[in-house]
Specification:
The chain has 442 residues and is an alpha/beta fold. The protein folds into two domains: 294 residues, UDP-N-acetylmuramoyl-L-alanine:D-glutamate ligase; 132 residues, Protein-Tyrosine Phosphatase, Chain A, CATH 3.90.190.20. The chain is built from 16 helices and 17 strands. The strands form three sheets. The chain has an eight-stranded mixed β-sheet with strand order 4-3-2-5-1-6-7-8. A hairpin with a 2-residue loop joins strand 9 and strand 10. The protein starts with a helix and ends in a 7-residue tail after the last helix.
């Protein structure tokens, strides 16, 4: 298949991320969670996931950043690394990377063609995410990566990536999100995420609340490395273009490391990634590798500055915890100036609580829009929520099209102001493509 044909074939599958093809009124993960489809598909492909060690990453926020950082650190140590993340911002190629670079169109078409041939022999058709998971694992075996760093798509226990027998499991944190799948309490969500931990594996645990620990201990990891005890962040200072941080792991301390991403919370992601990389290697990384990697690491769509005058910042905060982290970063690093929020949400989100977390009442203007997803929340619901919070009606716009919403934001924002695009990674991806049509999230 050509890339065009391969993407058309992929898009014909049930996609629970977008809701396309899911059964009316429910979805099959909710009705009958299972790993049988992905296991059967991988068995037909020769069980590629057993051919390399893996670092498996879950958590409510920070997963993609942690995967990118760990991948770069392991690459800096000389390893060939495959990485798998989701969702993509602009092109599906971004999800499957080899040594930090998204795979090319020819390689994507080739691996999807291979999966398509295997699918013909299955009793039950896999989902969009299951196909991509199988494709990533198959490709990593074909190119003989020395380690794979894999992000969970949703939760842990029933995620398609949980066919891995990972020697290192990572939990970045636990907050409330995806309650329709994972449960309505942090305890339920933690228990689901703990499902990626294999008995005897090393657990890198970024969640530090004591009441959560029992869920992870119940999985009987061989070694648990806890943030704040075994690894973490010392100093965490604002610097031009990023942060200046002190990091420590069980085997080493790294002082005054420049981290080229915005947001104090990214230092925590960096400490998790560093600990995970060293847990896999079994030895500390050299200070030179750590310094070089963190000085150049990028995390597109996460507190990403893409324009000036006005400042344009993209952040895929899609839950309350992420929104709070965004506002904290804005207040510390980008204080001052009129702020326009461009907000688009998926329909599972509660708009009032998201707007409260985004400090929407303090914004000079709110442009309510629709992410390019069938699951998009009606932007009128966002506008109604803003009004219920006391935001004056003359500071609220509803512009359904995301690109037109950006144009409206530029119209109402002075050159010394800020345009903040947030609420959904789908919206951030659309904004990124509109602002830089030639870009690809790398």
């Amino acid at each position: 298949m050509t890339r065009f044909e391969a993407i058309a074939w992929l898009d014909a599958h049930v996609n629970l991320e977008t809701g396309v093809g899911a059964p009316t009124g429910a979805d099959r993960r909710k009705q009958a969670p299972t790993l049988e489809r992905i296991r059967a598909l991988l068995e037909l492909l020769g069980s590629p996931q057993v051919e390399y060690p893996a670092i498996h990453v879950t958590g409510t926020n920070g997963k993609t950043s942690a995967v990118r950082m760990a991948t770069a650190l392991l690459g800096g140590a000389g390893l060939s690394v495959g990485s798998y993340t989701s969702p993509h911002l602009e092109r599906v190629n971004e999800r499957i990377a080899w040594d930090g670079d998204p795979i090319g169109d020819a390689m994507l078409a080739e691996v999807l063609t291979h999966v398509a041939a295997a699918e013909d022999h299955l009793a039950h058709r896999p989902s969009y995410f299951e196909v991509l998971t199988a494709a990533a694992f198959d490709l990593f075996a074909d190119v003989a990566v020395e380690v794979a760093v894999v992000e969970v798509g949703l939760g842990g226990t029933w995620d398609a990536t949980n066919v891995l027998d990972a020697g290192v499991a990572v939990v970045t944190n636990v907050s409330i999100d995806h309650v329709e799948y994972l449960g309505r309490t942090r305890d339920e969500i933690a228990a689901d995420k703990a499902g990626i931990i294999r008995p005897g594996a090393t657990l890198v645990l970024g969640e530090d609340e004591p009441e959560m620990l029992r869920h992870f201990a119940d999985r009987e990891p061989g070694l648990t490395l806890r943030r704040g005890r075994d690894f973490g962040v010392g100093a965490n200072r604002l610097a031009h273009g990023g942060r200046l941080v002190d990091l420590y792991t069980p085997g080493a301390r790294y002082g005054e490391v420049f981290l080229a991403v915005h947001g104090a919370h990214q230092a925590q992601n960096a400490s998790v990634a560093l600990c995970a990389a060293e847990a896999h290697l079994g030895v500390p990384l050299s200070p030179e590798v750590v310094a070089d990697v963190f000085a150049t690491v990028r995390s597109p769509g996460r507190l990403e500055v893409v324009g000036h005058r006005p400042l344009v910042l993209l952040d895929g905060a899609h839950n309350v915890a992420g929104a709070h982290a965004l506002v904290a970063a804005l207040d510390e690093e980008f204080a001052g100036g009129e702020r326009t929020l461009v907000v688009g949400l998926l329909r599972e989100k509660e708009p009032r609580e998201m707007l409260e977390a985004l400090a929407a009442f303090g914004a000079s203007h709110i442009v309510c829009t629709s992410p390019p997803s069938p699951r998009a929340l009606d932007p009128m619901a966002i506008a109604d929520a803003a009004e219920s919070l006391g935001v004056p009606v003359d500071r609220i716009d509803v512009v359904v099209d995301a690109e037109a919403a950006l144009e409206r934001a530029f119209d109402v924002t002075p050159a010394d102001g800020q345009v903040i695009v947030t609420g959904s990674l789908y919206l951030v991806g659309a904004a990124r493509a509109a602002l830089h049509p030639e870009s690809e999230a790398t």
